[in-house]
């Protein structure tokens, strides 16, 4: 939807709630980015407070290539295509974004249909992927993003202990439609293994403390160029007042960069924790 230029944070949360149950609180290490004391709304971008301190979550990503295509480039590992928060015990069903300030160029968000992408694979590949699961860790995710975006918060040892790794299927059946979709790719994905494979405490420490990624994740990465081909994707160039909602269970997305030194971008975001009952 476009043209919602006068929406307040409270109204944004209320509109978001049309599409699902809005998560009432941000992750503990992101609560400093809440908007105007509305605990469910997070600010993303490069805005600063009156003291000149960053008050938005900022992840530095490259802009789209000259071609304008968001297709994953295996050698560069870009763009960072992902499904939100697969590291949670109960991953969110969706997300919403609202544009408050947009740069004159760059800063687009791209979306990919993982249902059609899965359907495009041959039967043997589909069958293989059905037997795999992704090991997703928030500690791994936050430390990995922090390496290229130093302002990004990381978990303390206590927070890490309270947020153990989660396992999700690489192919997810949508609970409402029954359709199968590729799932589980996130910066938190530190291993892709046959379902039920045991991991030792030492292996988990390597993933979370040493921020190592298991070679098995290449199973997913090698698929990304084909499943983010232009026929599966759409690029949304933001205008002030835009509102976008998507279903995390069958859609991947990626952010694209802009000139953060010359331009300001401010987005508001809510997380949809569950379907409306």
From TrEMBL:
Transmembrane segments: none
Residue span(s) of domain TauD/TfdA-like: 2-271
Sorted UniProt keywords: Dioxygenase, Iron, Metal-binding, Oxidoreductase
Highest taxon of the lineage: Eukaryota
Keyword Metal-binding tagged: yes
Family: Belongs to the TfdA dioxygenase family.
Name recorded for this polypeptide: TauD/TfdA-like domain-containing protein
Organism encoding this protein: Prorocentrum cordatum
């Amino acid at each position: 939807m476009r043209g919602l230029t006068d929406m307040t944070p409270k109204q944004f949360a209320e509109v978001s709630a049309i599409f699902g149950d809005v998560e009432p609180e941000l992750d503990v290490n992101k609560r400093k980015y809440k908007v105007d004391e509305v605990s469910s709304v997070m600010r993303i971008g490069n805005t600063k407070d009156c003291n000149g301190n960053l008050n938005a979550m900022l992840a530095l990503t490259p802009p789209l290539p000259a071609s304008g295509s968001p297709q994953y480039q295996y050698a560069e590992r870009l763009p960072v295509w992902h499904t939100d928060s697969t590291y949670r015990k109960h991953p969110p069903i969706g997300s919403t974004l609202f544009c408050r300030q947009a740069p004159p160029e760059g800063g687009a968000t791209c979306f990919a249909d993982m249902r059609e992408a899965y359907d495009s694979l041959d039967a043997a590949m589909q069958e293989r992927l059905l037997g795999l699961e992704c090991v997703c860790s928030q500690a791994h995710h936050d430390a990995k993003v922090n390496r290229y975006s130093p302002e990004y918060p990381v978990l303390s040892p206590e927070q890490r202990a309270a947020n153990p790794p989660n396992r999700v299927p690489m192919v997810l059946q949508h609970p409402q439609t029954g359709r199968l979709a590729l799932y589980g790719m996130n910066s938190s994905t530190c291993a892709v293994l046959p379902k039920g494979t045991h991991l030792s405490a030492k292996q988990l420490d390597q993933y979370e403390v040493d921020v190592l990624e298991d070679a098995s994740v290449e199973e997913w990465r090698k698929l990304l160029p084909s499943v983010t081909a232009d026929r599966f994707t759409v690029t949304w160039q933001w205008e002030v007042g835009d509102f976008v909602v998507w279903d995390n269970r069958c859609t991947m997305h990626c952010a694209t960069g802009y000139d953060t030194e010359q331009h300001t971008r401010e987005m508001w975001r809510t997380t949809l924790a569950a379907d409306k009952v």
